[in-house]
Amino acid sequence: MYFQKGFGLKSEVGPVLARTYQSAVVERLKALGYEAGAGGLHFKLAREFGFCYGVDRAVDYAYQTRRQFPDRRVFLSGEIIHNPDVNHRLRDMGIEILDDSRDTAARFREVASGDVVIMPAFGVSVPELEHLKAKGCVLVDTTCGSVLNVWKKVHYYARDGYSVIVHGKHYHEETRATASQAMTHAGGQYLCVRDLAETELVCQFIRGTLTAAEIKAKFEHAASPEFDPDLHLRRIGLANQTTMLMSETLQVQEMLRRAMIDRHGEDGLEQRFRAFDTICSATQERQDAVLEMLNGSALDLMIVIGGYNSSNTQALARMCAPRLTTYYIDSPDCIGAAGIRHRPVGAHEETLTPMWLVAGEVRVGITAGASTPDSVVGEVIERILALRGRTAGELTQPAHIEQGLPTLAKATAGTQSFA
Questions:
Q1: What is the DSSP string of 35-62?
Q2: What is the value of pTM for the model shown?
Q3: Which positions are annotated as active-site residues?
């Protein structure tokens, strides 16, 4: 049994999702023009942030699944999205999240016929899907439409004899699933490049300054098993993990295009190189909103909220860090009396920064990755306010924004407060 459109239970789980993931504090900030202040703190909220449509849909389907199958074992093939708060709540509902593993049999060893398996917004690889079908599982597919769109492009490339280069993290669930689509066609091959440095290595090979042996050694775990640079980098098609930094993907595209021209000439380039824009719209909108804040606001610091393993949140932090002091946090618990726990861009561990919120007027930018619920964003704002002895109810409009909007109490009258 295979389900891709939920179970018609949206009206039943909707109120639960609203109570769990919405925030009156965030709604108040939006009503105040995405800017508000109290106690010398001036908050500016990105115009686009937090849950995207695909994430919202995936979480909705997970809640529907639990309600549809109350007496069955329900598994998630991995984290449904990269947010610790959301995944913790799903575990509390009795949904078991399986450990990530390259070994398909090991990953699904516990799963038996008749068990329910939810496939996350990132999708699963072709071998994993076939393995679960063979086991006789009930499958609930929450794969994001933007990811499915990339898969279509990969199929076109492989069908037409192009090797697929994926700009993404080779170990990420989405990239693995995307790359596996190339292998469904005879002769299909793939190679994953994580960043500009890895792309440059591929370009050096194309230009003839790096050997095939060097490429194979470097990309041993990031290429299809039979990948042969001499054969499979003659015709290439570029796709990407949908949550990568858009500006970097464009650079990857131009680097590869230029290398192919240098090697083979401009004539017939279309027969050797293809590229489509496959960054998802929600990722792009959140990146654009951050860029607008950086270019148009005199901010003192930026708070970026999202799971540390969330690629789209990492991309937001990478945009902010070179421009101003940036604290990348994964939960409200990161903010406390001792300081702020955060993960610097490029680091693999958290660090504690005491005395991060200086006295006096401070302009704080707030953004969040596409897998971060409003409830988490709202609680972060409340915790920052608490450091000044203030509450969200004291937030008022900056003088330059039109007055006359309702107070927090009026804005939330007759509704459940979810903060």
A1: EEEETTEEEEE-SS-S--HHHHHHHHHH
A2: 0.88
A3: 174
